[in-house]
C-alpha cells in the first residue's frame, strides 16, 4: 500500500514538470514567432498608380531681387551751394530729367571775366602781329634800297677802274712810240699818275664790292630777324589766345557740370542732398530701373560646374504669393572673387556709374534676369530660386526602388493585379530616361496610366502606413511647394551650402 502511494507521487511530480515546461516553451515560442500575438503584422509591398508627370532636376539657391540697372549720380562741380533739389526718394524720373540746380552766380561771373580776357588777348595779339609785320616790311624795304645803292656804287667804281686801266694802256703805248725825249718824259709822268689813279680806282672798286656784301648781309639779317619776330608774334598770340579760350571753356564746363540729369529712367532710391547744402563732391542720388529685375545669388563649388549662362530659372518670393516667376541666367562668375558689373549699360554720362554687386566668398556669384513681369516685385526681396538643369514634361516616372534587373539584365518594373495582393504581378520591360533624386523617367510599349507599380519594402504594414502618412504631407509628384516641380534635392543648394534628403520609401498612392 505504501509502495503504491510513493509511485503515484512520483508520477504527479513528473506530470507537473511537463506542464511547467510546456508553459515556458509556449511563452518563448509566442515571443519568437513573427505572426504570434495580437500586435503582430505581416510584411507587404507598397503600390503606386502609374501616371504621367513633369520631372525637373534643379539646383536650389537663395538670393536677393535687384534692379536690372542701378546708377549713382554725382556732379563734377564742387564747392557750390545747392539752390534746389528737384526730386525726392520714390519719384519716377526719365532719362535726361534735371535732378538738381546749383547757385551759378560766381561761375557766371568767372565766365564773363574769361570772355573779357579773351577779347583783350586777341586785341593784344593783333597789335603785336601788326607791329612785327610792319618791322618786316621796313627791313625788306631797307634791304632793297641798300642793295640798289650798293649796286650803283659798285658800278661807278667799276667804270672808274675801267677808265683808269684804259688810260694807263693808252699812255703806255704813247710812251713806247714817242721819240722826243721831252715829250716822252711828259708822257711817262702822265703814265705814272694814271697808274696811281688806276690803283686808287681798284681799291675803290674792291671797297664798293665789300661794302655791298656787308650791307647785304646786314640787311638780310634784319629781314630775317623781322620775319622771326612776325613768327614769334603769331605763335605767342596763338598760345595766349588758346590759354584764354581754355579759361572760357573751363568756365563754360563748370556751368555745364552743374546740370545734373538722370542717366537712366527709373525711381530715385536715395537722395543725399538738401536745399542750401554746400556740395563738395560725392554721390547725390541713386536711380534704379524697376522696369526689369535680376536676382543675385551664389552657388557652391559642388554645383557651379552644372550652371551656365542661358539656363532657365524659376523664382519664388513671399511678396508674390509664391507665384512661379520665370528667369534666365545671365552671368556666372568665373571665380569666387568675380562680380557682375554691366558697364556696357553706361549712357556715357560722366555723372553716373553702374553699381557692381559683390560675390560671396562662400560660392560663385550667379545673376538671373527675371523675364516675367509682376507688380509685386520689389528690390531687396528674398528670392528662392531653382536653377533648372534638366526637364522632362508629361512622362511616366517611378521611384528608383520600383526598377529591377531581370535575369537578362533588362530594366523592369513589377505591376500588381491589385493593391490587395502584391504577390502576383506582371513584369514589364522599360527603358530608363531622365533621373531626378527621387524619380526615374521610364519608357516602354506596355506602359499606360493606371498600372499598379510595386515598390518593394522591408518595413511592416504598420510602419509603412506611418511612412505614407508622413509622406502625404508633401507632394513629390508635381513639386507643389517647390519652384519648377520636383526638385533635385541632391543638387539643391543655398547660400549656406548644399542641402540634401533621403527619398521616401514610396510616393503616395
Overview of the structural elements:
The structure is a single chain. With 509 residues, the chain is an alpha+beta fold. Among the domains are: 1-40; 46-59 and 388-498, conserved putative lor/sdh protein from methanococcus maripaludis s2 fold; 106-256, Helix Hairpins (Orthogonal Bundle). It is 38% helix and 28% strand. It contains four helices and 22 strands. It has a six-stranded antiparallel beta barrel with strand order 2-9-13-11-10-14. Strands 1, 15, 16, 17 and 20 form a five-stranded antiparallel sheet that branches. A four-stranded antiparallel sheet has the order 6-5-3-8, with no helix packed on it. The two termini are 78 Å apart.
In the CATH hierarchy, the architecture of the domain at 106-256 is Orthogonal Bundle
User: What coarse outline follows from CA principal-axis ratios?
Assistant: elongated
Rg (CA only):
57 Å
What is the mean predicted local confidence, pLDDT?
Answer: 79
Order of helices and strands: HEEEEEHHEEEEEEEEEEEEEEEHEE
Give me the number of helical elements: 4
CATH class category label of the domain at 106-256: Mainly Alpha
Helix content: 25-40%
Would you identify the regions where 5 or more consecutive residues have pLDDT less than 50?
1-6, 29-43, 342-360, 459-509
The N- to C-terminal Cα distance equals: 78 Å
Taking the sheet with the most strands, its summary is: 6 strands, antiparallel, barrel
The count of DSSP E runs of length 2 or more, i.e. the number of strands, is 22
Strand arrangement across the biggest beta sheet = 2-9-13-11-10-14
* SS strand fraction: 25-35%
CATH topology name of the domain at 106-256: Helix Hairpins
Amino acid at each position: 500500500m505504501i509502495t503504491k502511494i510513493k509511485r503515484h507521487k512520483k508520477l504527479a511530480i513528473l506530470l507537473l514538470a511537463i506542464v511547467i515546461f510546456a508553459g515556458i516553451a509556449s511563452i518563448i515560442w509566442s515571443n519568437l514567432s513573427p505572426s504570434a500575438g495580437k500586435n503582430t503584422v505581416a510584411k507587404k509591398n507598397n503600390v503606386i498608380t502609374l501616371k504621367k508627370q513633369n520631372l525637373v532636376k534643379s539646383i536650389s539657391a537663395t538670393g536677393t531681387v535687384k534692379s536690372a540697372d542701378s546708377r549713382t549720380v554725382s556732379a563734377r562741380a564742387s564747392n557750390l551751394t545747392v539752390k534746389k533739389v528737384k526730386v525726392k526718394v520714390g519719384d519716377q524720373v526719365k532719362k535726361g530729367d534735371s535732378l538738381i540746380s546749383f547757385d551759378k552766380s560766381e561761375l557766371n561771373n568767372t565766365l564773363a571775366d574769361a570772355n573779357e580776357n579773351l577779347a583783350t588777348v586777341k586785341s593784344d595779339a593783333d597789335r603785336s602781329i601788326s607791329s612785327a609785320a610792319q618791322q618786316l616790311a621796313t627791313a625788306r624795304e631797307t634791304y632793297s634800297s641798300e642793295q640798289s645803292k650798293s649796286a650803283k656804287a659798285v658800278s661807278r667804281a667799276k667804270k672808274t677802274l675801267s677808265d683808269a686801266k684804259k688810260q694807263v694802256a693808252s699812255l703806255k703805248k704813247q710812251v713806247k712810240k714817242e721819240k722826243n725825249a721831252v715829250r716822252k718824259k711828259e708822257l711817262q709822268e702822265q703814265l705814272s699818275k694814271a697808274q696811281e689813279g688806276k690803283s686808287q680806282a681798284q681799291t675803290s672798286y674792291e671797297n664798293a664790292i665789300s661794302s655791298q656784301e656787308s650791307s647785304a648781309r646786314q640787311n638780310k639779317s634784319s629781314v630775317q630777324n623781322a620775319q622771326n619776330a612776325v613768327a614769334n608774334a603769331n605763335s605767342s598770340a596763338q598760345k595766349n589766345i588758346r590759354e584764354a579760350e581754355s579759361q572760357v571753356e573751363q568756365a563754360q564746363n563748370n556751368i555745364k557740370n552743374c546740370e545734373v540729369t538722370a542717366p537712366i529712367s527709373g525711381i530715385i532710391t536715395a537722395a543725399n542732398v538738401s536745399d542750401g547744402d554746400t556740395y563738395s563732391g560725392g554721390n547725390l542720388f541713386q536711380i534704379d530701373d524697376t522696369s526689369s529685375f535680376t536676382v543675385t545669388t551664389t552657388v557652391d563649388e559642388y554645383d557651379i560646374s552644372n550652371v551656365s549662362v542661358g539656363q532657365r530659372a524659376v523664382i519664388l518670393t513671399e511678396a508674390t504669393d509664391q507665384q512661379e516667376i520665370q528667369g534666365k541666367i545671365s552671368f556666372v562668375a568665373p571665380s569666387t572673387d568675380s562680380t557682375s558689373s554691366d558697364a556696357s549699360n553706361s549712357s556715357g554720362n560722366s555723372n553716373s556709374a553702374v553699381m557692381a554687386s559683390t560675390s560671396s566668398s562662400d560660392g560663385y556669384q550667379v545673376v538671373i534676369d527675371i523675364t516675367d513681369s509682376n507688380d509685386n516685385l520689389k528690390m531687396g526681396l528674398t528670392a528662392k530660386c531653382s536653377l533648372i538643369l534638366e526637364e522632362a514634361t508629361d512622362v511616366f516616372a517611378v521611384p528608383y526602388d520600383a526598377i529591377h534587373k531581370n535575369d537578362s539584365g533588362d530594366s523592369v518594373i513589377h505591376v500588381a493585379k491589385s493593391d490587395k495582393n502584391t504577390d502576383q504581378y506582371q513584369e514589364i520591360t522599360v527603358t530608363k530616361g531622365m533621373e531626378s533624386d527621387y524619380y526615374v523617367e521610364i519608357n516602354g510599349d506596355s506602359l499606360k496610366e493606371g498600372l499598379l507599380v510595386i515598390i518593394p519594402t522591408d518595413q511592416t504594414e504598420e510602419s509603412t502606413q506611418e511612412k505614407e502618412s508622413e509622406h502625404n504631407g508633401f507632394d513629390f509628384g508635381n513639386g507643389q511647394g517647390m519652384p519648377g516641380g520636383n526638385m533635385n534635392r541632391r543638387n539643391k543648394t543655398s547660400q549656406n551650402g548644399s542641402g540634401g534628403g533621403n527619398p521616401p520609401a514610396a510616393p503616395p498612392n
